[in-house]
Amino acid sequence: MVKMIDSEKIAKLLLSGARMTDKHCEKCSYPLFEKDGRIFCINCDTETKEDIIKEKIEFLYKKLKNTENVEEIEKIARAIETLKKIRKL
Ligand SMILES: [Zn+2]
Description:
Blueprint: H1 7-15, E1 19-24, E2 31-35, E3 38-41, H2 46-66, H3 70-88
Helix pairs in contact: 2-3
The structure holds zinc ion.
C-alpha cells in the first residue's frame, strides 16, 4: 500500500540536518533519509525507535550512577550495550 509522503515530516527532517538519499525502503518504498551517518525510513518510524532507545539508555545511566551493587552494575551495563546494538540496526 502506498501512502502519501508526509511533507511536513520531511521538511522537519531536512531542517534538522537530514538529507534524502537516492535509496528506497525495502518495506514500504519510501525514500530513505540519512542523518548522522544513519539511514532510516520516515514511514517505518525508525526515528521513533531511536528516541525510545535514547530515553532508555539515559534512564539506565542514571540507574548505573546510583547503584553500588556489582551484579546490578553488570546487568545495567549489559542492557546499555544491548540497546546500543539495537540502535545501530
Ligand atoms: Zn519504510
